[in-house]
Design a protein that fits this description.
The complex is a heterodimer of chains A (110) and B (114).
Chain A lengths: L2 E3 L3 E5 L4 E8 L3 E9 L6 E6 L3 E5 L2 E6 L4 E6 L8 E9 L6 E2 L3 E6 L1
Parallel strand pairs in A: 2-11
Antiparallel strand pairs in A: 1-3, 3-8, 4-5, 4-9, 6-7, 7-8, 9-10, 9-11
Chain B lengths: L3 E4 L2 E4 L5 E7 L5 E7 L5 E8 L2 E5 L6 E7 L2 E6 L8 E8 L9 E2 L3 E5 L1
Parallel strand pairs in B: 2-11
Antiparallel strand pairs in B: 1-3, 3-8, 4-5, 4-9, 5-6, 7-8, 9-10, 9-11
Classes of the chains: A mainly beta (110), B mainly beta (114).
Amino acid sequence: GQNIDQPTEMTATEGAIVQINCTYQTSGFNGLFWYQQHAGEAPTFLSYNVLDGLEEKGRFSSFLSRSKGYSYLLLKELQMKDSASYLCAVRAGGSYIPTFGRGTSLIVHP
Amino acid sequence: DTAVSQTPKYLVTQMGNDKSIKCEQNLGHDTMYWYKQDSKKFLKIMFSYNNKELIINETVPNRFSPKSPDKAHLNLHINSLELGDSAVYFCASSQDGTANYGYTFGSGTRLTVV
């Protein structure tokens, strides 16, 4: 099986930068996803990393280190609307179906 | 609007009843899924269909039966509902079976069994 670990909750200030970490233990790693889920809504796809390095997409960036089993999601210029749960999902073992972590609830305050 | 739409949004029913949740996508995607999100917020795969064919059937009780009449539709029928079935059920689709561009999720169906 897979073990995915992310902090349960984080708080940050509007306009600041926040980094949400995700560590995983798996064999046959085959990709890592980040999703954003607002309360009571569907998850929405943010990023996909399969190679080491940083992928930047507007205010959001995602980093992957396969040797360390580690990823982070970096959110810049935080806005109140960024308050949401951020789900890390790891794909491994020849399956195309990722396993989701329990998510990190991010609270952005003024 | 291009989207994944599922109905109903809320479903409250008694133990032992049978219910269905419908899902349709107009994105032209080949692959559709059913996920269950429990009270602890874990999203767990239930079924995956590629072009109407069942690809993945996780360890889900056989009271749950998916049906895909065509690649744009994936419905979920649940027999003899139990209290533990209470959860949010998400339908999703992806361009193909690799899902490298991520899933597009429906808005979810909150099922409450009383």
